[in-house]
Amino acid sequence: MRDTVTWKIGGEAGFGIMSAGIMLSRIYARSGYRTFATNEYPSLIRGGLNLVTVRISTKSVDAMSREQDVLVALTKKCVEECKKDLSENSIVIYDPKDGEYTSDDFPKPVRLMPVPLLAILHELNASLVMRNTIAMGATLAVLGGTLETFSQIIKEQFGRKGDEVVNANIAVAQKGYDYVKNTYGSETSMHLAPGGAKEELLIINGSEALGVSAVRAGLKFAAIYPMTPINSVITYLADHAKKYNIMYVQPEDEISGINMALGASVAGVRSMVATSGGGFALMVEGLSLAGMIEAPLVIDMGMRVGPATGMPTWTESSELDFVISAGHGEFPRIVLAPGDAEDVFDLTTAAFNLADRYQVPVFLLTDKYLNESHWCVPKNYYARTVAIDRGKMITEDIPDSETYLRYRTDVDDGVSPRTVTGVANGNFISNSYEHRQDGLMTEEANERRIMVDKRNQKFAAIQSAAIAPAHTGDDNADITFVTWGTTKGPVREAIKLLSGKNIKANMIHFTWLYPFPEKAHEMLKKAKRLVLVEQNSMGQLGGLIRKYTGIHIEERILKYDGRPFFPEEIVKRMTL
Amino acid sequence: MRDTVTWKIGGEAGFGIMSAGIMLSRIYARSGYRTFATNEYPSLIRGGLNLVTVRISTKSVDAMSREQDVLVALTKKCVEECKKDLSENSIVIYDPKDGEYTSDDFPKPVRLMPVPLLAILHELNASLVMRNTIAMGATLAVLGGTLETFSQIIKEQFGRKGDEVVNANIAVAQKGYDYVKNTYGSETSMHLAPGGAKEELLIINGSEALGVSAVRAGLKFAAIYPMTPINSVITYLADHAKKYNIMYVQPEDEISGINMALGASVAGVRSMVATSGGGFALMVEGLSLAGMIEAPLVIDMGMRVGPATGMPTWTESSELDFVISAGHGEFPRIVLAPGDAEDVFDLTTAAFNLADRYQVPVFLLTDKYLNESHWCVPKNYYARTVAIDRGKMITEDIPDSETYLRYRTDVDDGVSPRTVTGVANGNFISNSYEHRQDGLMTEEANERRIMVDKRNQKFAAIQSAAIAPAHTGDDNADITFVTWGTTKGPVREAIKLLSGKNIKANMIHFTWLYPFPEKAHEMLKKAKRLVLVEQNSMGQLGGLIRKYTGIHIEERILKYDGRPFFPEEIVKRMTL
Amino acid sequence: MSTFGFTTDHQPTWCPGCGDFGIWTSVKNAMNAMELGPDDVFFAYGIGCHGNMYNWMKTYGFAGLHGRSLPVAQGVKLAHHTMPVLCITGDGDCIGEGGNHFIHAAKRNADITVLLFDNQVYGLTTGQASPTARPGLKTKSTPHGVVDMPLSPAALAITAGATFVARGFAGDGKGLSDLIVKAVRHKGFSLVDILQPCVTFNKDFGYPWYREHIYDLNSTGYMPDNRVKAFDKAMEWGEKLPVGVFFEEERPAHTDQYEMLKKDILVKQPVVVDVESMLHEFI
Amino acid sequence: MSTFGFTTDHQPTWCPGCGDFGIWTSVKNAMNAMELGPDDVFFAYGIGCHGNMYNWMKTYGFAGLHGRSLPVAQGVKLAHHTMPVLCITGDGDCIGEGGNHFIHAAKRNADITVLLFDNQVYGLTTGQASPTARPGLKTKSTPHGVVDMPLSPAALAITAGATFVARGFAGDGKGLSDLIVKAVRHKGFSLVDILQPCVTFNKDFGYPWYREHIYDLNSTGYMPDNRVKAFDKAMEWGEKLPVGVFFEEERPAHTDQYEMLKKDILVKQPVVVDVESMLHEFI
Ligand SMILES: Cc1ncc(C[n+]2csc(CCOP(=O)(O)OP(=O)(O)O)c2C)c(N)n1
Ligand SMILES: Cc1ncc(C[n+]2csc(CCOP(=O)(O)OP(=O)(O)O)c2C)c(N)n1
Ligand code: SF4
Ligand code: SF4
Ligand SMILES: [Mg+2]
Ligand SMILES: [Mg+2]
Known about the structure:
Shape of chain C: globular
Bound molecules: thiamine diphosphate, iron/sulfur cluster, magnesium ion
Largest sheet of chain C: 8 strands, mixed
Strand order of the largest sheet of chain A: 9-8-10-11-13-12-21
Helix content of chain C: 25-40%
Oligomer: heterotetramer
Shape of chain A: globular
Distance between the termini of chain A: 32 Å
Largest interface: A-B, 67 and 67 residues
Strand content of chain C: 15-25%
Order of helices and strands of chain C: HEEHEHHEEEHEHEHEHEH
Strand content of chain A: 15-25%
Largest sheet of chain A: 7 strands, mixed
Number of helices of chain C: 9
Radius of gyration of chain C: 20 Å
Radius of gyration of chain A: 26 Å
Distance between the termini of chain C: 60 Å
Structural class of chain C: alpha/beta
Strand order of the largest sheet of chain C: 2-1-3-4-8-7-10-9
Helix content of chain A: 25-40%
Number of strands of chain A: 23
Number of strands of chain C: 10
């Protein structure tokens, strides 16, 4: 019996690969296990090879392992591509119609379990789209599970389509399950140890998590032009717009998107955009505008492999420098980078409050890995109350006797109270030109200097709210990994692997990147040996650290081939 | 007799203020003097106060002085605004019709020289637009000059309009000249010492200088959307397109501009765009594209006061961080920042060669001060031959037997030979997706890594071409100013002022900013006391230096009110 | 009826004789005619001479980026759909830099009013040709005269789906303010393309030229009820040049498409989330 | 006559049944009909399913940014005006993200050919509504159906000044390749709006639907010589849907406006500067 199994399914787009991964995650999440699912697919709609990997464990799962224990290969190409990543004694489920193998065809000895998927479909007169359902049944047999939860999920999922569909699916699942049990015996090396206490767990991808968190935080307006990897944010918001009284608009381009969002923000609603690097590039002028008019705005910047169109469906984290310096002129902004679904909740709700409190644009630097992986997170984490702080906002009419100054400078945090549209005597100009306290243009030297100083004052105010990097692991470790965003999980697991080798390592993980958190300096200084781990080719966090602390981290583990880090790989690349 | 006089003229837009400044500069440049002229005007077309200041000297002029010696005030507002900047015994020329003053109306005692400009016009039946011509005549009398060169320039300038216009202008100039001589005597405290040897000098603004240099460097295609402060580049190129066989296109927006320019570049011509921060913001996606397809491109990025629309007609240098980090994904680029008209020639011609040699985008970071000031530069400097190096370019047909690989990786500088359109067997795809050597898409991990490494290889190659910062002044100075771009002149003059106080200072001036020139480290380390001087509020060069060398310059003189530095001000802000 | 001056302590900086003065007056008169005061209306400005107006026009407003006033206006409208939202934009701003937003705002039938200050040039950047510049016009960017065909903002709007399309003249104060009132009252996307003399950079098309060539379309018996006829008229520019309402149609506006806006403006909608049901779908 | 396969070692990745296959074939046939080989022609691609074509279409080409193929094409054309330049673009690419370039390229009468793969959806981003989506179409971004009016690429082109405007159907190989040949041979801006079934994300408009609804405009006696009539036809979409040539006109192309291009292509023009005369004006 095993604590952990890593399972992978692969086939062409359209084979239901993604949904199989989600279903398997759900089955085990409902049964007292933790799961984590990642996907890989090329930038095209059909054909090619889509892969989903699900790690299932009785303990928490922070990252994907490099090797898989079970492979469900729905095409020959899948076997070819994936065999190199199978561990010893892995089980391979495949349809013998797609190809015949012996264990020798694999780099390491594996156990082959051909299952006649098409033949079963044929026999039951079931349609091709149910192939993945048979494979799921077979999977559950291999992992020593039952069909109970799976059947339940099938009912929930297909109930609307009628009993016939439900029953047909259950029947093929049963066939797959029985076929494995009958052909290969009821014990396999991949049986999972019993799950723990059943807690309600969400299986949610990063984009959905961000959508949910944003709605919780009071999001009212989103203008988002489609782009990988944030398309699921659109789907989530469009599908739930009516239910939650939020407005989703599909703009003609990203430039329109950010300008609409700023219009809505100035009018008084919480507003956001989401995009990837190329789309954000088009928003850069609007970002500078947000800085100048001091409008709150949340920007979900979903990173992927660049430059330009790059590898749109693969992961990378190379937009840190870009978002910190984007925009002409100088103005404060906040850059946050969640590392997992828990972080998404915490940082998304924080982002909206920070945007309002400091009247600045706030970035959520997500990436393809975060957005499209399916995380497993306690429902209670997401069910917590969210405190909404709209900052200095005036919604009551202003008496005739008062003169309202939108950009009043007699504030010590640089933040001036703002009215929402329609407040009597509250009219003002959101002005992209340099302006006086009343918002009207100025070109006078002194007024200019004062207004720059006012905006720059926010840096100090924001610093006081900054989230120090998370320090996890042994205080006295010999190795301190320094990283940010979604490398969190792989590094965390790498630390576990190292501790298995009696090497003490810990981690300084940044989720708040900018303004550079002052507290990080002390933390970094204390470390014995710093190792930078980043999902890019230039070590951008390393540059940022040196710029703000002078500390130069020479030892760097960088990855930029579009694939996320595997814990084993981090260990392997260490000079130990 | 004086070595140097600073003269200022002010009035409403439409009064011919700018052309008066150019003319005065020309007169003196042709007479053996050096000049330098700056302008100040608000962001509107008419009304307001336009000012031109011209410094004339028998020696070289690097910057403007804070105070003026002669003021020609064509409106009352001009007197009001400018009187605070007059030095003791300054001469003020004005039309008594606009207002009556006594020396007491001025902070320091001045010499008033009312000249009845309108009355003279009236008397000669001359039109209002000639008011500035009278003022010029008066000026020449005050400075102890003659009308000879001025008359010559009038002939050249108005010759096409016929003798009548020429003679009328000469007549009013004479009147102004005579009025001053007759009324205030032929000696004033502002007489200039005789000029030196007559060398042919150009009076040219930074934009024109850039246009001229680009044409010399073989520019063939420019797509430029209008924007202050690079509008003169458009005017220069549009006016000279036919003469020099170059193509200027006005695109519908900046996005179109950079994409057209990349199309032309890939087709094989030297191509450029010019814009300011807001327009460049819209080009950021195209920049990333240039990085990915490895297309040469020169970008004249004319800085002005931001964020957003800011103060569009005023100066600032706050786009250094922005251009270095702009664009999603990671790719090499080169950032150059000329400090004066000589630098413009050297760096513009270099920029086109560098772009071709390394197949990267190259920035010319100019600013409003550089672009719109009129510099005085020896014609010989601009008449030098320009070596054009198109880099690895294939213009000959490729034999049928060969397979052309646009992005071949067996190159040690990361630069692969490129064909121009139409070369037989030379077809390839400029691909914004990650690609293989032949340009077709790849999503394979290893191919991706190799292609990133290939592009990143250019960093080292480019570094070998990097221009170290210019070290000027005493090697053993107690103070080392560190600066970049157009603060060069003011700092240079500040050093002279300090040396007058027996304080030894020198300067490390960066014109090559990125990739950060490695040689700078040694230079900076040697200095006893570093003082950062920048025209922005964050000290961006300071950040860059710390990021790449660890050296933290604590002492900073920053200015961000839209006005250029004055040498006196730098001295004043030093803790001495 | 209360009247408003909308004044600030800034003085207009337009060139003496600029057509923008007349438009400004018509805008203020239109606001007064509709009894809209500074807190009742939202103006989104482009960047150009036209846009400088925000400094002497006291209302809720947004002086944003060059070319982007229409997206801003739509964002404001969606958040506060009971407030009249107008765009002050130019031919460069709206049809050059912002051309894409123009056709898409019209397509959506966004309930905003676009006042397009159409002077054929980029005034504020000292006179380059704009997309509406007529062939032959000599400007800084076209020293030998404009060569390509101009775009007609009115025809583009008609093609893209606008439901109120008119043309006015800066020199006709009364006619123009009437058109503005109609445009603002119209539910859906409304355009008033305003022929505006730029006395500094466009000497070919001054007040006299326009006075001589324009005619009032609506007094010729023309009915603005047909898109194809309207297109035909909107492309007309020669000896005669029509002003007036080209096209008018009733069709649900963009903001009509959102069920929830029937309840209240978005700004006032509470955050209502049943957390249990929200999270249920992920279990 | 030599024929070319234009093949690479990449296989098409379009969904089985996608209309893009048919268009691709027509494009290759058109090239062969004009005897244009891989080194003789330039294709600028947008980003979308349509744009993926560059991987299996060996020519000089540029797979640039989403929405920007028209500017790239114009830059190439200006630098090398003797080379035919085509854009492979989509309804999202060309009319959504790139709408401004579309109207301005038409206005300039840039001598490029735009092949617009019009499937009413954003295919590559898994099926959101595009600007040409018909009302009612349910997509990922419009779960309750599209509400606003679609934009007609053909009508926009006609309005903006295009000199050749046609519509074709991906399912009509011969007809389409003929239209492409005509479009490429036309001097000036040419558009072929291609009705393209997306079998994966747009089930409402498949081959049968189109086969049932389209008719050949040019065989009805329609003459493509009048912009207003063409506009009328380009807005037509109901029981019947015209394909064929809507409009054709001779007018100098953008590249005709540059005197120097009469001598040679820009790429081959030498750098000729008389330094003395160049600097003289600054003295
Ligand atoms: C992104 C960007 N590009 C260019 C500019 C420069 N710019 C300011 S106003 C203007 C043109 C204005 O023309 P138009 O909209 O016709 O207004 P007008 O001045 O004629 O009223 C331009 C190009 C800018 N501010 N921002
Ligand atoms: C700037 C930018 N925004 C968004 C995207 C994401 N994107 C890629 S393809 C596409 C839509 C493609 O639609 P269409 O042009 O109609 O092509 P189709 O796939 O339907 O052929 C989008 C939005 C992108 N690549 N770049
Ligand atoms: S430049 Fe033209 S548009 Fe601008 S203010 Fe002057 S007259 Fe008016
Ligand atoms: S998604 Fe649609 S357009 Fe894209 S390849 Fe598939 S069928 Fe074709
Ligand atoms: Mg204009
Ligand atoms: Mg499409």
